[in-house]
Amino acid sequence: xxxxxxxxxxxxxxxPYGNWMSCPKGHSQPKMVEKGxxxxxxxxxxxxxxxxxxxxxxxxxxxxxxxxxxxxxxEMLEIGAFYSDEDxxxxxKCGKCGFVERLEGKIK
Length: 108
Ligand SMILES: [Zn+2]
Ligand SMILES: [Zn+2]
Description:
Layout: E1 11-15, E2 18-22, H1 34-50, E3 62-63, E4 73-79, E5 89-94, E6 100-103
Antiparallel strand pairs: 1-2, 3-4, 4-5, 5-6
The structure holds zinc ion (ZN) (2 copies).
């Protein structure tokens, strides 16, 4: 592990709070939260990517009644035929609750 500030190799250091890696030049390291911080940050990014900021799915512009929550607009997800031997697969994703239903047959 290296110093976050200067890149020096960190050395083990004894402190009243325990032993941890410390920069020989005295830069402080975010050592207390190393692992927890990383995974938390990752989860946060994934979450914000999936969630729409204002709670409205702007891609849900098709009239479709959600079987789960009764919402009347859905996003159309079309999966190309190259994924399977069949015709294009169309799925409708509810703009409110995110319920995804696969449609049988074609939509016109
Ligand atoms: Zn340093
Ligand atoms: Zn729904």
